[in-house]
């Protein structure tokens, strides 16, 4: 979720499990978030509680097609979206773990029904990630906050072991009966109800509401939800309670063909409104542990001894700093020792360095750039070309050639280090760049100067004359989650790690992007599966520790004027 002006979603690494924060800036002058005494209600009047209802395997688009009445009634007093981002790993276990832990599958490492996290197989030094569920968190910090879970899935039931009361019914009808009983009579702070008939129907006939069996499963589940919400309102103390009802899905569609999901956050005081992404929503890179990287490129971005290539990045650097790297396919640099290539900052200017130290070649051949720290976006382009036995690197700023160098003596610039945007050790320890990036491109050919200049402002990458050579294109406009999508015909996504933030910049955009009709101060929200945990903590007024490293965001904080009276 992103808000214009102070807005951020912090992301962190599996290996380091670092800080995640949300700096919520509102589209109007909201009061600060209120955290009353635990267990008491709003201003001593209403006790907050959460009911989470999941419909596995239901895409937002298919829910819209059916438009079932009971879910529709909840949507009338809600903030909602039918376009929840898909997760990096789309298995049942991975998507459920994302909702329950509040971090994406790129971090929690859970992939199958064992619910046992695994370390990054591409990094032999990576520790096994540990991200407890929100049920475990509540048990730890607020043991008086009782929780109930209801699911037909035995593996999931076991994974939710930290719930105070777990119910494992035989089928969805029994799930409904158990939920009706619980919401009428139980004093739990958080109740989670899982329906799986829609998923089962999808597996049988396809995940489309055009299939009668799938549509019937949706409407039957909606009837179950109607029974549960009706029972909720019959609670003896309902008038003194303040319920947030979250209806969502672990994943739209199947695990092999995932679709965007949905989330409906309903409370009687909320005005109906769709949460949407608006403007340019890019990553704010800062700090020494922040980067986006290709986990395993199978050699695609290794330039070796003779491969021609072009890399281009749109960048806005926010402050002067000396010698931090901000874009690379290299080792770190120590003195003159470096293998690969990197772009680094030099005060208000930048430079590009090449080396082949680990491969028996020359280290640290540098090409100086020019001043780019001026509050504006700039385009940096690097080409490497082999011609008649000479390998030449050329650097361009905003399409204008700045310098070149013979890098033949580097011998081989391949390195197992990943293609990385963000921090990499430079000439000064712990120096880092503070910057935004967008529209990063990688071509498996050396573009000529005329082509570079003619296309730095290209708005549609598919129109590029060398589109067939494009092996990586990362717009960095995802707006949330821990995955930076690659939109090239081939290549790989990037994964985020470190305390980076998604910022909504509105129309503060690179030359390669088209301005949008964005109202200054508007709220931009990109919902993700981990938000279920973030919203639960927010609604129950449980302050989130930075040590939890959540990706999930309690973005209802942007609408407090509607429900805090």
From TrEMBL:
The keyword Methyltransferase does not apply. It comes from the Bacteria. Gene3D superfamilies: 2.60.120.200, Alkaline Phosphatase, subunit A. Residues 1-24 form the signal peptide. InterPro entries: Alkaline_phosphatase_core_sf (IPR017850), ConA-like_dom_sf (IPR013320), Phosphodiest/P_Trfase (IPR002591). Transmembrane segments: none annotated. Keywords: Signal. One of its GO terms (biological process) is carbohydrate metabolic process. One of its GO terms (molecular function) is hydrolase activity, hydrolyzing O-glycosyl compounds. This is Type I phosphodiesterase / nucleotide pyrophosphatase. It comes from Mucilaginibacter pineti.
């Amino acid at each position: 979720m992103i808000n214009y002006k102070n807005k951020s979603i912090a992301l962190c690494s599996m290996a380091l499990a670092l800080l995640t924060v949300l700096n919520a800036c509102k589209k109007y002058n909201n009061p600060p978030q209120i955290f009353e005494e635990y267990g008491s209600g709003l201003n001593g009047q209403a006790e907050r509680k959460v009911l989470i209802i999941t419909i596995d395997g239901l895409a937002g688009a298919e829910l819209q097609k059916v438009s079932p009445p009971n879910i529709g009634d909840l949507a009338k007093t809600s903030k909602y979206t039918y376009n929840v981002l898909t997760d990096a790993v789309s298995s049942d276990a991975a998507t459920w773990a994302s909702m329950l832990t509040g971090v994406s599958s790129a971090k929690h490492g859970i992939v199958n029904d064992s619910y046992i996290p695994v370390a990054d197989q591409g990094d032999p030094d990576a520790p096994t990630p540990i991200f407890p569920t929100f049920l475990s968190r509540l048990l730890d910090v607020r043991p008086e906050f009782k929780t109930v879970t209801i699911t037909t899935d035995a593996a999931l039931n076991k994974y939710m072991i930290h719930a105070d009361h777990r119910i494992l019914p035989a089928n969805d009808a029994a799930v409904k009966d158990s939920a009706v009983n619980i919401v009428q009579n139980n004093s739990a702070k958080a109740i989670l109800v899982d329906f799986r008939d829609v998923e089962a129907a999808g597996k049988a006939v396809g995940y489309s509401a055009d299939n009668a069996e799938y549509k019937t499963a949706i409407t039957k589940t909606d009837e179950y939800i109607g029974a549960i919400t009706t029972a909720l309102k019959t609670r003896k103390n309902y008038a003194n309670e303040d319920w947030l009802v979250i209806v969502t899905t672990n994943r739209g569609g199947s695990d092999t063909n995932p679709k965007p999901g949905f989330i409906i956050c309903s409370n009687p005081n909320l005005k109906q409104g769709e949460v949407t992404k608006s403007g340019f929503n890019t990553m704010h890179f800062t700090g020494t542990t922040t980067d986006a990287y290709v986990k395993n490129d199978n050699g695609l971005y290794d330039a070796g001894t003779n491969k021609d290539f072009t890399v281009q990045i749109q960048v806005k650097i926010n402050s002067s700093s000396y010698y931090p790297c901000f874009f690379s396919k290299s080792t770190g640099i120590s003195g003159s020792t470096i293998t690969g290539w990197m772009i680094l900052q030099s005060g208000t200017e930048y430079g590009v360095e090449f080396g082949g130290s680990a491969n028996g070649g020359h280290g640290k051949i540098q090409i100086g750039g020019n001043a780019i720290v001026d509050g504006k976006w700039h385009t940096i382009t690097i080409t490497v070309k082999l011609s008649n036995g000479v390998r030449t690197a050329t650097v361009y700023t905003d399409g204008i050639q700045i310098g070149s160098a013979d890098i033949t003596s580097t011998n081989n610039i391949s390195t197992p280090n990943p293609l990385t945007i963000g921090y990499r050790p430079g000439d000064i320890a712990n120096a880092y760049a503070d910057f935004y990036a967008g529209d990063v491109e990688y071509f498996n050919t050396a573009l000529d100067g005329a082509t570079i200049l003619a296309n730095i402002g290209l708005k549609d990458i598919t129109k590029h004359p060398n589109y067939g050579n494009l092996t990586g294109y990362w717009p960095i406009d995802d707006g949330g989650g821990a995955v930076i999508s690659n939109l090239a015909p081939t290549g790989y996504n990037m994964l985020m790690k470190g305390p980076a933030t998604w910022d909504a910049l509105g129309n503060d955009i690179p030359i390669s992007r088209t301005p949008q009709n964005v109202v200054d101060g508007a709220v931009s929200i990109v919902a993700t599966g981990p938000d279920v945990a973030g919203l639960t903590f927010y609604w129950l007024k449980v302050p989130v520790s930075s040590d939890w490293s959540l990706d999930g965001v309690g973005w209802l904080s942007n609408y407090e004027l509607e429900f805090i009276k």
